[in-house]
Amino acid sequence: MDRLRGEPGTTARTLGEAEYEPPEALALQRQLFRLWHRFRGDPHVRGAPLTRAQLITKVLPVEKRFFALAERHVNTADAEVSNLARALFVHHPHFFTFVHEEGVEPTNNVAERALRTAVQWRKIMFGNRSAEGELAVARLLTVTRTCQLQHLNVLAYLTAAISCYRRHQAVASLLLKRPTL
To answer: How many CB atoms lie within 10 A of CB 88?
Structure first.
């Protein structure tokens, strides 16, 4: 699935590509994402939008076929495919969380985009020279990304945080406030 093999169109191996079998896993993945996009109300996908209950009902057979496909390839000679099949068995409950839980996406694209700046910085700057430097960079990048996600001005937040620190005052929290019941 996407969490294990990357975005569609990449050259990563899938269970269906093992030992020259038909790309069954890719077909299952396409079917799963069509259902997801129908649930999301994507206008480019044929079919009426689905409710959460309909999505769960329609995904269950796809989930079972993924599991059966993995079962057929657990002991294959190709180590990569065998590892992928074993991972599906071990992490099976987590792969379909997006079907049942509100706010969970089927891919890790959001997380990858959040890490992109940090990865680019590390490549350009050749890492850190100390554990303290690594911690400082991690904190700065975390604050930067959090401010961006909350549509806050990063420079204004950091300036205010430094001013508060110098005056021994509490710094404004970036944690989202949870509604009380």
So the answer is: 21
Q: Is 144 in contact with 154 (CB distance < 8 Å)?
A: yes
- Which whole-number Å values give the CA distances from 176 to 39, 46, 111, 150, in the listed order? 27, 37, 18, 9
CA gap 76, 19 in Å, rounded = 8
Buried b / exposed e across 71-87, counting CB within 10 Å, b at 16+?
Answer: eebeebeeeebbebbee
pLDDT in tens, 64-90: 998 888 888 888 888 888 888 888 878
Model pLDDT for residues 141-165, shown as the tens digit of each residue: 889 888 988 899 999 999 999 999 9
* Single-letter amino acid, residue 77: A
CA distance 90 to 87: 5
Alpha-carbon distance of 174 to 147, in angstroms, equals 8
